[in-house]
Every structure is written in structure tokens, then in C-alpha cells.
Design a protein that fits this description.
With 349 residues, the protein is of the alpha+beta class. The chain is built from six helices and 19 strands.
Length: 349
């Protein structure tokens, strides 16, 4: 038996403390590993029923049956000429260096961008002649910095005077409208530390890789069809699913279950992670067919009655904007198709 001395007692206490500290460190490392790695087990919750790409921020959506899931957002792989990606183009006011979104001009939702022959983007607007933008002719050295929400500044390559004239004439604007392009690697990637630190503290799964190009906060917005059906059942006049501007629509789950989704798998390979509920602004109340605000400001008004953020901290950060949909980022890229099964993780790795 070890004699009871001051030295021996100190050795036992010191050894016990080392073991406890090592155990706590191991648990912390293990928990972090489990949080940041996809689960091993999955539960099917539905299937993909819709895929939409918005090449132009606040512009008309492009519905597809198949798309490539990339870190920056969905890519159109069906177009044989040019594979456009989600929200890589942005209209901006060159006097203020601010984005011109649907909040500024609701008619933006009528403007379309499609890939055309010869590495060309075709811009169109009802009642106006199309404009062909040749990407090879863009001077990538002409970079502008645009001021956005929460103090964030994003870079864009200016697309030239030709398309600028077309934009101003098309929208009958004297605001010196111009077109910006998220041209990599000239344009740097967005980071959480640049404007989104408050959100990252509250929504701990948020990562810089999730921010996308010119999307608000995420490269993917996921909504269930059942959620959209539920809000329509509460309205005197149902609204189009396009009002919500989702990238991925899932059907087969209870309404609003997407609020709680963490890890998601689409098909056999694509893995995403939800990190924040999507708070909705007035763009939700724009009719995608007319480019005008709903006279009753629906569905936003009804959403505000029952779809508020849950915690006090969230409400202090985002205000009274209602919640509808899930922001998600990509972990494993791949092809996604309408009809693909959708799974959520059921256990940590």
C-alpha cells in the first residue's frame, strides 16, 4: 500500500486532473467532429418535386428537371449552350453602388437570363427586345464594390455599357443601372466574417462556404410543398409557389418540418446542411407574373401572424420578419433530379 504523504496525495490529484482534462478535451473534439461530419444513418422524408435556378438576382426563375449542386448554388446542366448558375448576375445602381432587387423595383422578377450560343447570356423582359451579353467581351479588370446588408461589401465585374443602356431603357430608369457578374477567380468569395458575424454566433452551423454568390445568405433555399399548400389554405386567394423563390422543393413531409432539418441527402450523393430558417421580406408579396406587389401584401401578411422566429435572440437580430423555408449549404456536390428521394440524418457520425 502506497504511504499517505503530501507528495503522493499531490501526485494522485494531479493525475486525476490530467485524466479529467484529457477526457473533456476528447469529448469536445469528438462532439465537434460529430457536428461537422455527415451522419451514417438516414431517414427518407420525401422527394424532390421542383428545382429552380435564378441566374439573375431577383430575376425570373428557371425551372429545370436536372441540375448540378455546386458550393455556390444550382447549375443548369440542361442548356446545351451555357451552364448558368444561381444568382451569378446582379443589377446595381452605379450612383449608390447598391443592388437593385425586387425590393427596389418589383419588375425585376420579370427579367430573365438564359444561356445562348457562343458563350452568350440572353437577357429578356416583356415587351422589350432581347439583349445578348457576350461573356468573352467582358473586361474582368473592371471591378466594383457593392454595399449590401449588415455592412457586407461584395465585389462584381461590371458587364459593360451596352447592357447598362439596355437595363436603364428597359426599366425606364434614370438611376444608371448596370450589370455585375460574379466572375471567378477575379471576384473573391464572400466570408462570414465580413458582415455576418452576428448571424454566425447565433446560427453556429453557418459557414463562409454556404453564402453563395449574390444570394442573401445561402446558396440554397429549401421549402416543402406541404408548407406552401398550408399557407395557401389560409389565404383568400392562393399565390404561386414561385413567390417564395425556393431552389429546391420537397414533397412528402408534414408542413414546416423543414424548420428542424439539419443534415440532408438528395438522391445517392448530394449532401447539404440546413443552418438557418429563412426570414421573408416584401419580395415574397410580388406577383411573379405581373411584377407588382399583391394588393393585400399576401402571403407576407398572413405569414407574420403565425410564423415568427422562436427565440428572443433571433427576433432581436432579424426583427418581425416571418419564417418560411430553410437556408442550406452544400457539403458533397453532385447531380440532383426531380423525383430524387430526400433524406435527413438520424444519427451523428
Amino acid at each position: 500500500m502506497m504511504p499517505l504523504t503530501v507528495e503522493n496525495v499531490c501526485a494522485v490529484v494531479f493525475g486525476t486532473a490530467i485524466v479529467l482534462i484529457a477526457g473533456l478535451l476528447w469529448k469536445r473534439i469528438s462532439d465537434r467532429y460529430n457536428r461537422e461530419n455527415p451522419p451514417l444513418k438516414w431517414k427518407r422524408v420525401g422527394q424532390v418535386s421542383g428545382l429552380t435556378i435564378y441566374p439573375l438576382k431577383s430575376g425570373h426563375g428557371m425551372s429545370v428537371r436536372t441540375a448540378q449542386c455546386d458550393t455556390m448554388g444550382l447549375i443548369d446542366v440542361e442548356n446545351p449552350h451555357l451552364h448558368l448558375q444561381d444568382r451569378k448576375f446582379i443589377v446595381y445602381n452605379s450612383k449608390k453602388n447598391t443592388a437593385v432587387t425586387g425590393l427596389v423595383d418589383p419588375r425585376m422578377v420579370l427579367m430573365e437570363a438564359h444561356g445562348d450560343v457562343g458563350n452568350t447570356v440572353r437577357l429578356s423582359f416583356p415587351g422589350q427586345q432581347d439583349f445578348l451579353l457576350y461573356l468573352s467581351s467582358i473586361d474582368t479588370s473592371k471591378i466594383v464594390l457593392l454595399n449590401r446588408w449588415w455592412g457586407e461589401t461584395v465585389a462584381a465585374v461590371d458587364c459593360g455599357n451596352g447592357v447598362a443602356c439596355w437595363l436603364s431603357q428597359t426599366l425606364y430608369s434614370n438611376a444608371d443601372l448596370r450589370l455585375g457578374y460574379f466572375s471567378r477567380p477575379t471576384v473573391p468569395l464572400r466570408t462570414v466574417s465580413h458582415g455576418w458575424t452576428q448571424f454566425a454566433k447565433l446560427y453556429t452551423r453557418l459557414r463562409s462556404e454556404y453564402l453563395g454568390a449574390y444570394s442573401y445568405l445561402a446558396s440554397y433555399l429549401i421549402i416543402t410543398k406541404e408548407s406552401m399548400d398550408d399557407i395557401n389554405s389560409r389565404l383568400d386567394q392562393p399565390v404561386s409557389e414561385r413567390c417564395y423563390r425556393a431552389n429546391i422543393i420537397v414533397k412528402g413531409s408534414p408542413a414546416y418540418c423543414e424548420d428542424d432539418w439539419d443534415w440532408l441527402r438528395l438522391g445517392d450523393s448530394v449532401i447539404m446542411r440546413g443552418f438557418k430558417p429563412c426570414t421573408r421580406c416584401a419580395v415574397t408579396a410580388i406577383d411573379p407574373d405581373t411584377g407588382k406587389f399583391n394588393p393585400h401584401f399576401e402571403p407576407l401578411r398572413t405569414l407574420k401572424r403565425y410564423r415568427q422566429l422562436k427565440s428572443k435572440e433571433e427576433r432581436e437580430l432579424s426583427g418581425s420578419e416571418p419564417v418560411f423555408g430553410l437556408y442550406a449549404g452544400l457539403h458533397i456536390p453532385g447531380i440532383v433530379r426531380v423525383g430524387d428521394p430526400v433524406y435527413i440524418g438520424t444519427s451523428a457520425k
